[in-house]
Structure to design on (256 residues):
């Protein structure tokens, strides 16, 4: 493994994106803005009649959670179908391995490219949060750091999951049974204290919940359930374990 060759893999992602960026506009930028308007401003006006969470306007409370969520969705989206394509459909990873690249270069290059995409979408959403939700600019952009950690905690695990299967049916199941439930029940829209007691410890085991907690702490100063370093450590540990697993699976599936 060498850093320059991994960077070349990330560069290939950028070169492809220059030709396909228009297709990502809705999912990466317009859809999150519409979600913030509908849930934060629309529904939020009803929530605020009885007082928003923590005494804050609901839209300001919601926005940092959505920063963590868009990071998760970007990481999952970029590590699912594109990885399946490279491994099974167009076999671009086989072509890379025929050159001076190792499986670890492919995984780390993919990790770097997706991390760039996460920064891209979270920075845009942070700007929207300042505009629509009135979040302090410094806090909003600090929350992009939590978003990056959140997304990085999903890149490796989703890449590993994708590498195990040959059919995109498994990817549909991933989004249906993992990504969407995490989106709904990890504290993005309401505090997990409103969940049944037995479900709350389950939320503690999800990277998205840790990212939401960290993002809100950075953006609007809400105290976290655990010490911030615990959330950071959890996200880093999951991300590193995912990368190691992805490298092993790529070596098993691609190197004959």
């Amino acid at each position: 493994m060498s850093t320059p060759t991994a960077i070349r893999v990330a560069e290939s992602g950028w070169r492809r994106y220059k030709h396909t960026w228009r297709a990502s506009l809705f999912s990466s930028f317009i859809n999150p803005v519409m979600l913030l308007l509908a849930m934060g401003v629309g529904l939020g006006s009803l929530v605020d009649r009885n007082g928003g969470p923590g005494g804050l306007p609901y839209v300001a409370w919601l926005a940092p959670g959505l920063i963590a969520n868009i990071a998760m969705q970007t990481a999952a989206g970029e590590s699912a179908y594109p990885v399946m394509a490279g491994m099974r459909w167009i076999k671009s990873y086989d072509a890379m391995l025929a050159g001076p690249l190792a499986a670890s270069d492919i995984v780390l290059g993919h990790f770097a490219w997706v991390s760039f995409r996460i920064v891209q979408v979270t920075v845009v959403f942070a700007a929207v949060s300042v505009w629509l939700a009135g979040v302090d600019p410094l806090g909003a952009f600090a929350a992009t750091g939590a978003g990056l950690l959140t997304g990085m905690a999903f890149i490796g695990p989703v890449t590993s999951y994708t590498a195990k299967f040959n059919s995109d049916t498994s990817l549909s199941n991933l989004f249906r049974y993992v990504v969407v439930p995490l989106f709904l029940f990890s504290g993005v829209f309401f505090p997990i204290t409103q969940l049944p007691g037995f479900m709350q410890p389950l939320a503690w085991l999800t990277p998205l919940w840790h990212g939401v907690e960290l993002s809100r702490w950075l953006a609007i100063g809400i105290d976290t359930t655990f010490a911030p370093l615990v959330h950071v450590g959890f996200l880093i540990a999951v991300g590193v374990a995912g990368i190691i697993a992805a490298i092993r699976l790529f070596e098993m599936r691609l190197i004959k």
Notes: The chain has a mean pLDDT of 90. The two ends are 18 Å apart (CA to CA). Residues 3-254 form one domain.
